[in-house]
Predict the structure.
Amino acid sequence: MSLQFNNENSQVRYNNKSYFDKNIRSLTERQVKWMQTYLAYKVNVSFSSNGSSDRHEELMNQLSRHENFKDYVSDAYSEMTYKLVPEQNFEWLVDNLRSQIFVLNILSKEKGYIYFDINSNNLMEEIYSFFDNKDNANNLESKIFLLSDMQKRWSSIIRSENYSKWLVESDILHIEWTKDYLRKVGIYNKSVRNNKSSKETRNHILASLDLIDHPVSEIMNDNYINYRSSDRKEIIIDKMKRAWSQQKYRSAGKTKKAYHLPLTKKTKAKLEKMAQVQGLSETAMLDILINRFYDLDYVDVDGKELY
């Protein structure tokens, strides 16, 4: 004997439990959100989210109020097949704040996507919103192509960049200094919220550097395999690294052990001039010069000693 409910919606839910389990509970949060938006627009009834913490329950309650809810679901499923970009196309972005910041900036600059929430704690939701929005008239193939193109562009940057290993994740002082430096020179990206944890700040820094003269889709047509950082970007990176070296040696100057190095008068004069221009002591200037050329000629790109 089946249970009887006084509430009609509850009765419908109970009588169609297996249907709802198969067709609604199996959906992802993103799919439920899309279906609610689609039905609210298509059927012109109350399918919009009311802000429930459980969207699946919310949608099932909404559907149970309509006699032909199965037709609605069937129609939505059919439409979703041709409109919603499959989740596997977003896998490279999930749990990758650095790439998410890159993509949101590309969408903003190239596609006019300026209405995302810069204070959002979930940037993936903001990216989904662009591709899933009912007002996005691009077909499924175009959306997938755009995602693939942005992934190729970002990957080409990652292959050629030389600053991720330089900015060590465990060095909080280095991360904070770099953030302040990029802010002062106007490069730190402010398109999304400014995070407080050092890990997230590091991702913001790397994304800011990634976006300097990034490859443009209309110009490159070879999967970006020939992409190289611009001269301007290389100069910016080099100046940043030099500034950090100077900062380190300034801080370490008070604890250094003194050594006497006999120099010719001409070399000594050059050292004095260089130190004066840089605002450093002669010892700090000499430290920078030695370490800079050591890094250039005696270690590889990964920082390992060659000899």
In short: The radius of gyration is 28 Å. The first helix runs from residue 8 to 15. The mean pLDDT is 84. The chain has three domains: 8-84, 97-210, 259-307.
